[in-house]
Design goal:
Blueprint lengths: L1 H9 L6 H62 L4 H59 L8
């Protein structure tokens, strides 16, 4: 064991200025990556808020349209319109409800995909943060790990 330490010491100091320059470059790249991940997460949060609002708005629009068509069919029946007109108005209101559910399902799928992307970015953010902390600890202890003999 002592012989291995002597050979290591005889090989020279592994912590050359080039090593520290490369180490600093890696550290700075990780910091830049963390900033980019934070920015991407903020953008995803904005998109998720936007999709949530669009889901509410589309739901209100389709409910209002469905109700309006239903009211029109009742009014048409009340003023003694021919039964065919009343049936057509009632039949027209049914596809509106289906389309509303379809649009909501599309927006929900998009929202779920955005949540998935956000989870991936959060995991990458945690990993990058841990790497930065580890690099910072190694950088602060790098000079003191030299062998003295």
């Amino acid at each position: 064991m002592l012989g291995e330490l002597r050979r290591f010491k005889a090989a020279g100091d592994p912590f050359t200025p080039e090593f520290f320059a490369a180490f600093q470059a890696v550290y700075l790249e990780h910091l830049a990556m963390l900033g980019k991940l934070r920015q991407r997460k903020r953008r995803l949060d904005g998109r998720i808020r936007s999709v949530r609002a669009w889901r509410r708005v589309s739901g209100l629009v389709f409910v209002a349209t469905f109700a309006a068509l239903l009211v029109c069919s009742v009014v048409a029946a009340a003023i003694a319109a021919p039964p065919i007109a009343a049936a057509l108005a009632a039949a027209a209101s049914l596809p509106v409800g289906s389309v509303g559910k379809w649009v909501d399902s599309l927006l929900k799928q998009y929202q779920d995909a955005l949540h998935g992307h956000k989870e991936v970015v959060s995991a990458m953010q945690v990993g990058t943060f841990i790497a930065i902390e580890d690099l910072g600890a190694r950088r602060s202890s790098g000079g003191s790990s030299r062998l003295h003999g």
